Amino acid sequence: MTQRCIEIVVGRLVTDEEFRQTFLSDPHRALSELLERGAHLSHAEIAALIATDPSLWDRIAEDVDPRLQKVSLKV
Questions:
Q1: How far apart are the C-alpha atoms of 17 and 8, rounded to whole Å?
Q2: 17 Ramachandran zone, left/alpha/beta (phi>0; psi -120 to 50)
Q3: Exposed end of the chain (fewer CB within 10 Å): N or C?
Q4: So what's the pLDDT on residue 18?
Q5: Distance (Å, rounded) from C-alpha 29 to C-alpha 36?
Q6: Alpha carbon 32 to its chain's center
Q7: What does pLDDT average to in each consecutive run of 10 residues of the chain (75 residues)?
Q8: How many Cβ atoms from other residues are within 10 Å of residue 59's Cβ?
Q9: Could you tell me the pTM of the whole model?
Q10: Backbone phi, then psi, for 45, in 5-degree steps?
Q11: Cα–Cα separations (whole angstroms), residue 66 to 1, 53, 59, 62, 73
Q12: What pLDDT is recorded for position 2?
């Protein structure tokens, strides 16, 4: 089950602008919210996500077709 959760988190990081911004500003809060909603991540997986170069998520998101993106409407 955790591999599927990792795929969901990575997918959200590259396609969901609001989630990505929350993660970049406060990764513990972003992941805690997912865990509260039923995601299953081990401590090692959480640590690995947080340790990943934060600029990676924005770089990948820039290359994803905009039709696959969920844009934040927050100002």
A1: 14
A2: alpha
A3: C
A4: 94
A5: 10
A6: 11
A7: 88 95 97 94 96 96 89 66
A8: 11
A9: 0.86
A10: -65, -40
A11: 29, 23, 13, 8, 15
A12: 79
